[in-house]
Amino acid sequence: MRHLIDPLDLDREETARLLGLAQRILDRPGDYARRCEGKILATLFFEPSTRTRLSFESAMLRLGGQVLGFSSAQSSSAAKGESVADTIRMISGYADIAAMRHFKEGAPLVASRYSKIPVVNAGDGGHQHPTQTLTDLFMIQRSRGQISGLTIGLCGDLKFGRTVHSLIKALVRYEDVRFVLISPEELRTPGYILKEVLSPSGHPFEEVRRMEEAMPRLDVLYMTRVQRERFFNEEDYVRLKDSYILTPEKLALGKKELAVLHPLPRVNEIHKQVDEDPRALYFEQARGGVFVRMALILALLGLEPHILKEA
Amino acid sequence: MLNIDSIENGIVIDHITAGRGMRVYELLELHKLDTCVAIIRNARSSKFGKKDIIKIEGITDIDLDVLGFIDDHATVCVIRDGVLAEKKQPQLPQRLVNIVKCKNPRCVTSAEDVDQEFYLCGGEQHRYRCRYCEQLLDDGK
How confident is the model at residue B6 (pLDDT cuts 50, 70, 90)? Predict the structure, then answer.
């Protein structure tokens, strides 16, 4: 039995097959509409996240399956002090697959060790969010036809933004990817990502402070939100939240085929006028996340063979 | 020169980097032993100038992973019947299980009753990350 806890739990070939399946589902959703009949997905959300939870639930419902779960720790038995290990042991008897979001980093890994059903990490604190990474890769591939050979700009909160860290780790597995890391000094990419991931990969990367400087050479621009909850100090948040706003003027400096992505939700880092630009793909990216999760559910349940290797 | 009696049966951990002797003592939980244990700090060393030494009477086996984690330069001499029976060199372990604790308050290990696990990170030697939250271990070594 396989789980998805870390974005790198799937190797490059498995990722390619999974994204290929997601594309086939997107092209012909009717062919998959009853593939999960009789199956139940448990959404165990110890921390609220409407978007991710609905995306998982939509994925299962579109496959003809059913969902159950809870959307905050208060409404779960965790409020009574139940351990993650005991919760997943119990859920293993109620559902066929589980998506878990937890405020404690590493909780889905603990769950996977005690679970009798596949566990998907739907976000653990500031740590990992592997289905977001797969969603990001899917949109890059759909928009640019490939992932290798691209110049990818990552902009905004590169220090606390877990989606960025996971995406970098996933992207270094592809050939000839060049990274442009665009952030204010205070929100630079952590040293360990530079030293342990980017430098050993041999992929060229540069850190720049101004979005305009990087824009003309980018194939993909991945914007991120400066998240209030990652700051201990309100003043720092207020000072930095508007640092890197994508406006139509800045976007005009970009290539015609540039893909602008964002994990969402957006606050104000992308001006609303940018939404009308055909290069603004973030809402399509979010829609694609449902197909990625459908593919993942099918693969983890073993209903679509030859996507994942045996555990 | 301070004299400590030689031991008949036991272990001498030699060549401990000066200043790390107490850490070895703590993590090997030598305070739990009721046999004779001697810590010698800042002993003269021809190789390193000074070193720490620990002599433990009555046991012939210790957790080499713990020792390798704290100081992989140390040497373990097993003494049987008053003579050196075996010499062991600890290695830097790939994994640490229940040796040190993760200090990240957001880590699941702060709330759940699970093994404390760390893995040796690639690239930079002597650096470990928590298996659960991947926070770098800062053990103040």
Answer: confident
DSSP string of B12-38, one letter each residue: EEEEEETT-HHHHHHHTTGGG--S-EE
pLDDT of B3 above 70? no
Q: Which residue of A has its CA nearest to B108?
A: A104
A80, A256, A272, A306: which one is catalytic? A80
ipTM of the complex: 0.86
A124-130 average pLDDT score: 90
Condensed to tens digits (0 to 9), the pLDDT of residues A245-258 reads 899 999 999 999 99
Find out whether A215 and A152 touch, Cβ atoms under 8 Å. no
A105·B108 Cβ contact <8 A? yes
Q: How far is CA A211 from CA A181, A182, A184, A191, A250, in A?
A: 9, 6, 10, 21, 8
- Three-state SS for A165-184 is HHHHHHHCCCCCCEEEEECC
Average pLDDT, chain A: 93
Residue ranges with strand state E in A103-228: 119-124, 151-155, 178-182, 205-208, 220-223
Q: Is the pLDDT of residue A75 over 90?
A: no
H-type alpha helices, A221-281:
234-240, 248-251
Q: Do B107 and A104 touch (CB under 8 A)?
A: yes
**Separation CA A188–CA A158 (nearest Å):** 5
